[in-house]
Amino acid sequence: VPGLYLLLLLLLPPLLHASEATQPEPCELDDDDVRCFCNFTDPQPDWSSALQCMAAVEVEIRGGGRDLEQFLKYASKDPKEYADMVKALRMRRLTVGAARVPGQLLVSLLRALGYSRLRELTLEDLEVTGILPPLLLEDSGPALSTLCLRNVSWATGGAWLEDLLQRLKPGLKELHIAQALSPGFSCAQLRAFPTLTNLDLSDNPGLGERGLIEALCPNKFPALRDLALRNTGIETPGGVCAALWVAGVQLHSLDLSHNALRSTAQGTPGCVWPRTLNDLNLSFAGLEQVPKGLPPQLNVLDLSCNRLNRAPGQDELPKVSNLRLEGNPFLDPGVLKRLEDPPISAAVSACAGSALTCVWPRTLNDLNLSFAGLEQVPKGLPPQLN
Ligand SMILES: *[C@@H]1O[C@H](CO)[C@@H](O)[C@H](O)[C@H]1NC(C)=O
Ligand SMILES: *[C@@H]1O[C@H](CO)[C@@H](O)[C@H](O)[C@H]1NC(C)=O
Ligand SMILES: *[C@@H]1O[C@H](CO)[C@@H](O)[C@H](O)[C@H]1NC(C)=O
Ligand SMILES: *[C@@H]1O[C@H](CO)[C@@H](O)[C@H](O)[C@H]1NC(C)=O
User: Fold this and answer.
1) Tell me, what's the pLDDT at 140?
2) What residue stretch is flagged as signal peptide (predicted)?
3) What pTM does this model have?
4) Assuming Cys at both sites, which of 33, 98, 175, 242 could form a disulfide with 268, CB separation 3.0 to 4.6 Å?
């Protein structure tokens, strides 16, 4: 818990000891004093190395998977004692990752950060153990604009998000939750998000339409503009339309890429998309045809890297100013066959560059990439081949 480490290090001179020259410093501050990165993987890490991060604007600390229980004894210190010092920190962005953190320590960190000017907090690969101590009246964590949680597990169970949000000052604009163990969160227990404009629930493959309906309660997201649902087990755009309609969300952009969408499914009958919706991303969705029930008018429709075998007809498509179709077999009939000949087609490399793979035809058995001038094995190959 870096912020806290930094504070503790200042408060607790006994912890400070000359760094041993034998091992490389766990922390590195860049030349511009902007970014500081610490990776405490050593069994006996030199914690004092984190002191140099005091000057940084962006701080990232990885705990090497260790348990931070040893710091718990300092968690009861009253943050008011070091408030002035926290106020002096330049830190705006903080990432804490790869550790087991007692809930009590996390809460102390948030309290201390309440005096900071931190705007973005990311918690990544963390296991939060034990319960979070009860909310105190003076609890008022940082005034974050962005909160990102990736692969964070909570011993407290289902109510973790509400508990966490209550410890922040109001004004959150962006919330990202990925790799949540349970389907994410149930918004029924949550208060409204009056200022939230950007919700990213990508990389929660267990979410699905049902989880989405649970996450988006009616009238709790009055300011929401951008919703990202990449790789969330969504099956039909129509199902998302229904969830948005129920929630009364006036979206501007919706990202459904990297879901295995069923193109044959009918749109939910009578579902009305938000009239504000401008951008719809349906790339990497394994679509063989344009799904039915799309919004009637869009600014951007991204259908790239699908399996469209023919050019979509005007009657299949919404009225759209910017249509993206690259990486579909109809534009490049050899998109699969061409792999046999060098050079690899631009369309395929465009699709293959993505972090998540294009959905290849499940029937594809043989792939010949010989004489292709490759310097390494391309990403995004089919998972199984003969
Ligand atoms: C931290 O160090 C460990 C061990 O050296 C390494 O495996 C890991 O990739 C590093 N983490 C980052 C984010 O650089
Ligand atoms: C998720 O975080 C845990 C630590 O809490 C870690 O052991 C695990 O490897 C992480 N999973 C992924 C997919 O990164
Ligand atoms: C659509 O999503 C894909 C994959 O997530 C991304 O590469 C692409 O840039 C997005 N398209 C637009 C128009 O933002
Ligand atoms: C792959 O293509 C190369 C060049 O066209 C050819 O010589 C080779 O026999 C092919 N490999 C297979 C397994 O068909």
Assistant:
1) 85
2) 1-18
3) 0.81
4) 242
CB 327 within 8 A of CB 358: yes
Ligand 2: nearest atom to the Cα of 100: 5
Atom of ligand 3 nearest to the CA of 279: 13
DSSP per-residue codes, 115-174: TS---EEEEEEEEEESPPPPPPTT------SEEEEEEEEETTGGGHHHHHHHTS-S---E
CA distance 178 to 97: 14
Please report, in angstroms and rounded to a whole number, the separation of the first and last CA atoms in the chain.
Answer: 48
pLDDT at 362 over 70: no
Residue 225 binned pLDDT confidence (cut-offs 50, 70, 90): very high
Ligand 1 proximity of 62 Cβ (cutoff 6 Å): yes
**Alpha carbon nearest to ligand 1 atom 1, residue:** 39
95 lines ligand 1 (CB under 6 A): no
Rounded CA-CA distance 201/255 in Å is 10
Nearest protein Cα to ligand 1, atom 5: 41
- Exposed/middle/buried for residue 296 (C-beta within 10 Å: 0-12, 13-18, 19+): exposed
Residue 386 tokens, joined: 């003969």
| Side-chain-side CA neighbours of residue 207 (13 Å) | 32
Specify the 3-state DSSP secondary structure of 234: coil
Q: Helices in the chain by DSSP H: which ranges? A: 2-11, 83-88, 103-113, 160-166, 208-215, 237-247, 346-352
